[in-house]
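Why do we care about 3D structure at all? Because function follows from shape, and shape follows, mostly, from sequence. That is the central idea of this module. The next example makes it concrete: a single protein chain, its amino acid sequence, and then its structure expressed as tokens.
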Amino acid sequence: MGWVVANSVPSLSKRERALVTWASVVPDVDGLGIVAEKFTEHSAHPLNWWSEYHHVLGHNLGFAIVVTVAATIAAKRKFATALLVSISFHLHLIADLVGAAGRMATNGRYRTCCHSRTNGN
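And the structure:
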């Protein structure tokens, strides 16, 4: 999706298109916690970084603002890039919600609107 958004304005430079595309995948940076979780799952002190933080740290308005500001600083066409980065970031969030039917399931728990609940409560 990010690449399509990035190419919606042909006058963007390669760098600016890369920033817009990057914004569509960067919310999932919190998913990298699965590596530590898998390596420590059978240890005395497992790191539940993916189970606890995926779809929490990178999927919120604060992170969207950080990503948009960072991309704006790096771009020459600041307004167009900032707008497209924000759109691209939020399309990722919408796709996650639609793909999960509004629920982000992880081990009997789901996250919605930046907080966790146990199923059935």
